[in-house]
Amino acid sequence: MDRTEEFEADLAAGARRALERGRDAGEGEEGFEADLVAGVREQLRRREEARRRREEWVQKRWDEFYQRLAADAAAMED
Q: I need a labelling partner for 14 at 20 to 30 A (CA). Which of 21, 38, 53, 69 fits?
C-alpha cells in the first residue's frame, strides 16, 4: 500500500468513525461534517509531521556524511 492509498484508507476510517459518533450522539450532518473536517486536518497534520521528520533524518545523514568526508580529506592532507 503506497502513501496515497494509506492516506485514503485512514481518511475513510476517520469518516466512518465520525459518522458513527454523529449517529451515536444523535447529530445530523453538521456534526458529521465537523468531525470529518477535524479528522482530515488531523491526518494532514500527521502527514506533515512525518514528512518533516523524514527530511530532518535525511539532512542529519547528509551532515554526518560531509563531516566524515571532511575528516577523511583532512587526514589525507597530513
A: 53
Crossing angle of helices 3-25 and 29-77, in 10° steps, is 150
- Supply the pLDDT for residue 24: 64
**Residue whose cell numbers read 479528522:** 39
Angle at 38 between CA 37 and CA 40, to 5 degrees: 65
Task: Tell me the torsion sign for CA atoms 42, 46, 48, 49.
Answer: positive
Find the length of the chain. 78
How many whole angstroms separate alpha carbon 34 and alpha carbon 31? 5
Where are the domains positioned within the chain? Answer: 3-77
pLDDT tens digits for range 9-47: 777 777 777 777 766 666 666 667 777 778 888 888 998
